[in-house]
């Protein structure tokens, strides 16, 4: 599932390539991805300008000129692709927006994911957004705030980092990477972390997410035919999906085990 760096990369692409353009046509291949009937969706969206593109956790929010917004959640397999005017749309898109530039913004594999139409003023009232924790890259996500949140928790640290009500936008990849960065084993009890480890974890979360976002995350799906950014962080991964390969720090093979129902990748030598 894409996390903050991947979703932020997609957000930046959509903003750069489509902001200010007008949706001239809507083609829906899977009605279940919507939260309103297809005719109602098309009637409200068609003719509207894309005026703003934001991100909240792992969701993208595209605001339209008629005080409505599109809330997109890719879940496990979803992605979006921009086909420039003259390019053939390939695959089986869930939804296509044909823009006044001739470009087509196509959303794919929204089987578990969705594209919901909501009044812009009601965004924070959406159940999917209302209970989300703080954004780890926000200016007000300070060390003090993080330590305060951490002080109330007792479970294992990796599942906690992936809890969207604790911190929004972290998932399996970057929870593994931040724990390696901070030299903490994924199954350590949160209550057992000392002050130095907690501070290190905070700085690793922000540093790694910032770097990964700058380099385009690890998403495999390119946004457009000229996209040279997406996926640029993959070669920087230290432990995630590197089972059996040597640790860059000590050369011991990276190991994997189930922690909180998900695969945890770690170095048993470097992490304690």
UniProtKB/TrEMBL annotation:
It comes from the Bacteria. It catalyses: 2'-deoxyribonucleotide-(2'-deoxyribose 5'-phosphate)-2'-deoxyribonucleotide-DNA = a 3'-end 2'-deoxyribonucleotide-(2,3-dehydro-2,3-deoxyribose 5'-phosphate)-DNA + a 5'-end 5'-phospho-2'-deoxyribonucleoside-DNA + H(+); Hydrolysis of DNA containing ring-opened 7-methylguanine residues, releasing 2,6-diamino-4-hydroxy-5-(N-methyl)formamidopyrimidine. The keyword Zinc-finger applies. Keywords: DNA damage, DNA repair, DNA-binding, Glycosidase, Hydrolase, Lyase, Metal-binding, Multifunctional enzyme, Zinc, Zinc-finger. One of its GO terms (biological process) is base-excision repair. PROSITE patterns: FPG_CAT, ZF_FPG_1, ZF_FPG_2. Its EC number is 3.2.2.23, 4.2.99.18. One of its GO terms (molecular function) is double-stranded DNA binding. Gene3D superfamilies: 1.10.8.50, MutM-like, N-terminal. Its cofactor is Zn(2+). Residues 238-272 form the FPG-type domain. It holds the Pfam family zf-FPG_IleRS. Residues 2-98 form the Formamidopyrimidine-DNA glycosylase catalytic domain. Coiled coil: none annotated. Belongs to the FPG family. Monomer. This is Formamidopyrimidine-DNA glycosylase. It comes from Sporomusa malonica.
């Amino acid at each position: 599932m894409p996390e903050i760096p991947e979703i932020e990369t997609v957000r930046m692409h959509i903003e750069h390539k489509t902001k200010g353009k007008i949706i001239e046509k809507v083609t829906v291949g899977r009605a279940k991805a919507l939260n309103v009937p297809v005719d109602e969706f098309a009637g409200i969206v068609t003719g509207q300008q894309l005026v703003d593109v934001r991100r909240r956790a792992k969701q993208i929010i595209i605001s339209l000129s008629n005080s409505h917004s599109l809330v997109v959640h890719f879940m496990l397999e979803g992605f979006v692709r921009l086909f420039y005017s003259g390019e053939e749309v390939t695959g089986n898109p869930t939804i296509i927006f044909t823009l006044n530039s001739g470009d087509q913004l196509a959303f794919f594999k929204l089987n578990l994911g969705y594209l919901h139409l909501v009044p812009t003023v009601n965004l924070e009232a959406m159940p999917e957004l209302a209970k989300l924790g703080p954004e780890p890259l926000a200016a007000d996500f300070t060390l003090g705030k993080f330590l305060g949140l951490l002080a109330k928790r007792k479970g294992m640290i990796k599942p906690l980092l992936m809890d969207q009500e604790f911190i929004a936008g972290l998932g399996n990849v970057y929870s593994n990477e931040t724990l390696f960065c901070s030299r903490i084993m994924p199954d350590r009890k949160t209550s057992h972390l000392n002050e130095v480890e907690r501070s290190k974890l905070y700085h690793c979360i922000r540093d790694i997410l910032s770097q990964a976002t700058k380099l385009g995350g690890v998403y495999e799906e390119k946004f457009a035919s000229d996209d040279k950014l997406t996926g640029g962080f993959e070669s920087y991964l230290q432990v995630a999906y590197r089972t059996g390969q040597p640790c860059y720090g000590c050369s011991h093979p990276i190991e994997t085990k189930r922690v909180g129902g998900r695969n945890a990748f770690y170095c048993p030598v470097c992490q304690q």
